[in-house]
Amino acid sequence: MDYGTIPGIALAPSVICLGTGGFGSSIPRETAFAILDAYAGQGGNFLDTAHVYAAWEPGGAGASERTLGAWLKRSGLRRRFVVGTKGGHPHLQSMQVSRLSPVEITQDLGESLERLDTNTIDLYWLHRDDPAVPIGEILGVLNEHLAAGRVRALGASNWSMTRLVEAAAYAGAHGMQTFCASQIGYSLAQSQLPNPSADGTRYMDGQAWEGHCQRGMPLMAFSSQAQGFFSGKYVGDGRNLKTGKDQTVKKIYFSARNFERQKRAVALAEKYGRTANQIALAYLLSQPFPVFPIVGSQTVEQVLDSCAAAALTLRPGEIAWLEG
Ligand SMILES: NC(=O)c1ccc[n+]([C@@H]2O[C@H](COP(=O)([O-])OP(=O)(O)OC[C@H]3O[C@@H](n4cnc5c(N)ncnc54)[C@H](OP(=O)(O)O)[C@@H]3O)[C@@H](O)[C@H]2O)c1
Q: For the domain that residue 276 is a member of, what is the CATH number?
């Protein structure tokens, strides 16, 4: 495993971060524990969860955070792990109504601390933005939680680069801390959704890429494996695909350009004796700014495969060739 740095976080987080959206719901607790054990065994120490995971599953609300809390307690590894969770997500039944008031942020954070069975969150993310909410109000309450030790560093997920720059300027002028990292969707396969998408998620675009290059700001990439687009399962016109998740992959990633990138990832994987999925992760790890891919491992085999990409870097010429 390789490790990086994120300003404000004392521990060096592993470059491969483990996403845990389905832990304790679509992924039963025993399987989740086995994935976590395997990830820790590979030197992984960076977890990504959220207050809203997995409220969309019957009985799933809070399951991911509770599963992580139980595993961290059982393993005794809390102090060796960088735990990130997110709050301020809209209620699922009213996605257009933001929840970024001081009361809502504080309520979500309190529940996350309880579920994770910890007294501090290493990296606390806001899950969404609402440009109508003044930046000073948002940073004010987050800085109170920093001062109280309830969180150690701040991150912004699905925020535009314009708002991140605004937040940094406000914090600088008012002696506050701002967001030390951004979390958006980013993979070798490019998203075809509008930015932001209907559910408020954001994917890499030119403005974000330039901003990260200029500022050197760490990026946590969700859907870093394009939801399995490089696994070998997604070929051709997708007419044989049946599950809801398959249809999502088709909608977001099926394009002539992405199939060409997939073909090239397979070719490079054959050259290096790797998997195409590992090449896709290496593409992110070889960017000119720090990228921590979040991997959505469903099995022990998948987490082992993804962790093995950590030490793999690609040359600029290979990056350009993959991009076509
Ligand atoms: N901040 C946000 O708004 C946001 C949004 C989305 C996700 N996230 C975070 O990111 C995490 C991961 O998201 P994601 O599920 O979209 O990520 P992903 O890693 O791109 O996709 C996961 C899928 O990729 C396939 N896969 C996993 N490991 C593989 C491997 N080694 N080789 C080949 N295929 C592999 C699996 O597909 P099969 O099931 O078909 O095997 C799996 O379901 C979430 O758990 C969450 O923590 C954050």
A: 3.20.20.100
